[in-house]
Amino acid sequence: MTATIQTLEPAERPPTTMSSRLDGELLEVSMGPQHPSTHGVFRMNVALEGEIVRKLKPVFGYLHRNHEKIGENATYLSSMPYTDRLDYFCSMTNNWAYALSVEKLAGIEVPERAEYLRVILAELTRLQNHASLLGFLLSDMGAWGTPLMYAFRERENILDLFESLSGSRMMCDYMRFGGCRVDADDAWLGRAKKIVDLFPKFLDEFEELILQNEIVIARTQNVGKLSPELAINAGITGPMLRACGVNYDVRKVDGYGIYPRFKFRIPLGDHGDTYDRLMMRALEMHESVEILKQALAQIQPGPVVNPKVKLRAFRPPVGEAYGRIEGPKGELGFYLISDGGPNPYRYRVRPPSFINLTVLEDLCLGHTVADVMVILGSVDIVMGEVDR
Amino acid sequence: MESLEQIKNRAELAARGAKIDIVVNPGPAQQSSLLIDNEHAAAVAQFLRNHPALTFDYCSNATGVDWLDRVIKKTTKVKTVVDGVEKEVDQTIEEKIPGYLEAVYHLYSMKHKHGPLIIRMRTANRTDGARLPSLTPIWRSAELQEREIFDLYGIHFEGHPDLRRILMWDEFVDHPMRKDYREPDDYEWEPTPHDDVLEKAKQHYTPRPQLDGAENVTAQPQ
Amino acid sequence: MIGTGILKGMAVTARNFVGSYFEKERLITVQYPEERIPLPENYRNFPILIYDNDPEAGLRCVACKICEKECPPQCIYITKSDDKKPDYMGKPQFYPKVFDIDISVCMSCQICVEVCPFEAIKMDKDFELSKRERFDALLLRKEELSKSNEYYHRIHPVEAAAVDTNLAEAAAAAQAKKKAAAAAAAAKPTPVTPNPTTTSAPGSTSVPGATPPESSSSPTKS
């Protein structure tokens, strides 16, 4: 087999445009939307000087379906299953954020057991999201497959819990305004307890693999540094913000639900680089396990849904509300305006992974192409939420 | 956090000539907001971010809202004298509210951990001249969100560093989140049997040509 | 030291690999389709319609169209019947002339089940639904959707038992009310035919055929 290389004569060369200069200065490369490391259909127009990124423009919209317009054309209840599809890794926290906003909008109380179930499910969601993120991040660094499979093994345990409770692994559609849809029986809570008790074992193994691995350290430390000032100004939230050393966690600040009852710490980073962001996930999982242990010990029997809330023909009073929770990826908010009708007049999602991408260019400038993938992986995006 | 009136008074003092109204939220959430005039919006926003007691350094959410012209009917009981007898008569007042496009910002303070403070800007112009000042120079978190508002609502943010469409493709002409947006007939070609989409699609697409059977012949016998 | 990370990684891999021969828990996959993991009780896939005894007459659905209205992706299509048939309580009700669910659109959210006041629509557990054709084969008609109560008991035993108790209670209450009404109307000699369907839980007695006269329902009307 002989390979023939076709060379173009200078006259045949396509005219160079502003965007693709091949004269040795800058080379524009379109990364994505089908690139395996972009975590979905996400594209970055990267201008390269050699292998160094000099410019990076993210291109969105490949998964855009105008979720907000769908929400305005559907009843309040009908939007609940659509929220599962925003960040399809964390449907429970999406449900909670939406339910919380509608409860604010209509002034609905939530029974105590439902609050406990919500905390348990949200923290389980955080565990499985962070675990799979670490797996993906290692995949991006070239540890293809194996760490991801270990992470997915744990994630699958948690998804089995979700499935046996809500009927679906990922599209849970579990929470309702004023509570939760079905109650969890003792057998389920026992299973959850067992999974939570075994989780630190996996974490220790995973941390031993990642955190002291010299390849991971070489690839992540001092890569993609973010200053706390820029992070605050650019509205970065979640583990990415706390990796810069800013102590801001909506669970502590707003104390929504029953989070003030639990003792947990907020891990903070020092350098704001990719390694810190990675560590932040590992440390947050330890704290989530702590919260879960407390919640599973404290939960008492009781009703799981407020009986006063109407399921059919639900109409909140005129007004508006912005509710937010600390999702695994950052602050997830829903801004709702009601005109008294069965559909929201305005239904807005504040997607954390979309806004966290604001600083993507700042993080990547001056790094190599291979680092772009690691940085993007550490931002933790899901395109269902970014493009909506 | 200070009350909205205090913030309003302080901001009006700090930004000379700024006109700020309080928009009351009647719902149980009680999140009332400040309506800022467009001319002084940047100055007011600057003040809100930099004032040491307020320090709204974090703009969580920026979004657009489209309010069409609407009529609010208010029924009040009015005492009138009819034929010398005093009667209570229901009087309906129709209040016409002209439509406007609105940009809403939810501000929090990461330093003092308070919030939200909601600020709004409005423009009555719905055509391509819909313009509002950009707050991206003050809070960079509005960068992508203002692009999204521009894309979906068609509000031009003056002073935005990179105002382009973000979610829709560049050749798209309309602004789909506006309330009067009509989707084109052929926006979706998915012939589900009970869908009027099929009827709409039929108007745009010629039916498949009748096949002559040649496609069934797959292999020639050797 | 360079290389220790790789050794550690290989150690973990070896532990999991060798361990899988000794610990059943380390084996996390099954050999589908020969082996299957039992589905949890709450598992849901696509909606089905429940009938008691007779697939045509015993259908619990009364074509109230609430599910059609609340369905988020609008995949349910119902046409109400012109006439009425007695339901499991003997009350004349409409029935669906057409009841179609487009499962290529359905997103398995279970909202139709929650909003149904008649326990008529439930979720199936059958997930092996691959079809060779995209449109009509995935549009399930009433005949394909109708499943017996026994089938429902088989797939959701706990939930179905609770539903049956609820329905039996409702039937008993209706029966008591009817008796009271009959006692009140005892002065008038109306020929109230004793309705066999109202005596006990659905599934134990049969409705079909015995179309009660229209007059028998009038006392039960509330």
What does this structure look like?
The complex is a heterotrimer of chains A (388), B (222) and C (222). Chain A has helices at residues 67-72, 76-84, 91-106, 112-140, 146-166, 186-210, 214-220, 228-233, 239-242, 250-253, 274-298, 352-356, 360-364, 369-379, 383-386, and strands spanning 27-31, 43-49, 52-59, 175-176, 179-180, 319-327, 330-338, 346-350. With 388 residues, chain A is an alpha+beta fold. In chain A, strand 6 and strand 7 (330-338) form a beta hairpin. The N and C termini of chain A lie far apart (48 Å). Chain B is of the alpha/beta class. Chain B folds into 2 domains: 4-66 and 100-168, 2-Layer Sandwich (Beta Polymerase, domain 2), CATH 3.30.460; 179-209, no CATH class. Chain B contains 4 helices and 9 strands. A 5-stranded mixed beta sheet of chain B has the order 1-2-7-6-3, covered by helices on one side. A two-stranded antiparallel ribbon of chain B has the order 4-5. Chain B has a two-stranded parallel sheet with strand order 8-9. In chain B, helix 1 (4-14) packs across helix 2 (41-50). Chain B starts with a helix and ends in an 18-residue tail after the last helix. Chain C has a domain at 47-162: Alpha-Beta Plaits (2-Layer Sandwich). Helices cover 31% and strands 13% of the residues of chain C. Chain C is elongated and about 100 Å long. In chain C, 30% of the residues are buried. Chains in contact: A-B, A-C, B-C. At the A-B interface, helix 3, helix 8, strand 6, strand 7 and strand 8 of A face strand 3 and helix 3 of B.
Question: In a few lines, what is going on in this structure?
Answer:
With 388 residues, chain A is an alpha+beta fold. Chain A has helices at 67-72, 76-84, 91-106, 112-140, 146-166, 186-210, 214-220, 228-233, 239-242, 250-253, 274-298, 352-356, 360-364, 369-379, 383-386, and strands at residues 27-31, 43-49, 52-59, 175-176, 179-180, 319-327, 330-338, 346-350.
